[in-house]
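User: Show me a protein chain along with its predicted structure.
Assistant: Here is one chain, sequence first, then structure tokens.
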Amino acid sequence: MTIRHATETDLPAIVAIYNSAIPSRMATADLEPISVESRLSWFQARSPSQRPLWVIEVDGVIAGWLSFQSFYGRPAYNTTAEISIYIAPQFHRCGLARQLLVQAISESPSLGLNTLLCFIFAHNQPSLNLFETFGFQPWGHLPKVAEIDNVERDLVIMGLRIIDRYCDRLN
């Protein structure tokens, strides 16, 4: 198992993993598959030193990915990032999301991040449980903000103060 920075040649695998999450209606608000071309500018906006995109490989196969996204796009929020994790279906429940999350938390201070956020549908209990395991707490609940297959869905904002957690370990 290897975690590394994604390259542009990884983008088809990244998109395929993302698209595999759409039918479950639990992990993304996209309702139709996306194309590699539509994700090219998103990919090019990633920066290994500030907002990385990592892939996790198992035996040379890209099994999942984690991205950091700037939050709200204004300078006052530069120390906060949203993270997203997607794992290929055949690698679910293998602990890969946990490994990506461990690395994201440990690397955040070197990326200049004090706070991590994630946006999770309220019916996505596996993801809520994963992030809670790592100390993320519910910071917001947006009722019925998404409509998926004629069902209104709630969104939970989970947050973790990295800087507080890091400082607590030093004391």
